[in-house]
Write a structure and sequence with these properties.
Number of helices: 3
Number of strands: 0
Strand content: under 5%
Shape: elongated
Order of helices and strands: HHH
Helix content: over 70%
Keywords: Membrane, Transmembrane, Transmembrane helix
Oligomer: single chain
Largest sheet: none
Length: 109
């Protein structure tokens, strides 16, 4: 039980940090909005970072599931799916934001 709680806490902290990073990046993008190609580059970098984090999380969960029993492995898999869903949602949100910004830029020009 103790181990489960610790892992949950760790995951929550990771998610919180991710959210904070995303917000910071978005703010930076909004502030340092010079040209369209620059924006695109920034978006690509953000996406790459997200993918890297996803991979790291997946690796961690896999390692934990291997060490644990089958019953606990199922719980870990569910958590991974939720994390994947969250990541997908984040990606969609970022894409929408970028699209909106692009539209705004076009309107300005």
């Amino acid at each position: 039980m103790m181990t489960m709680t610790t892992t949950r806490r760790r995951t929550t902290t990771i998610t919180m940090t991710m959210m904070m990073m995303m917000m910071m990046t978005l703010m930076m993008m909004i502030t340092t909005m010079t040209t369209i190609p620059m924006l695109l580059v920034k978006v690509t970098i953000m996406l790459l970072l997200l993918l890297m984090t996803m991979l790291l999380l997946m690796m961690r969960w896999r390692r934990r599931s291997r060490t644990r029993t089958r019953t606990r492995a199922t719980t870990t898999t569910t958590t991974t799916t939720t994390m994947m869903m969250m990541m997908m949602m984040m990606m969609m949100m970022t894409m929408m934001m970028t699209m909106m910004m692009m539209m705004m830029m076009m309107m300005m020009i």
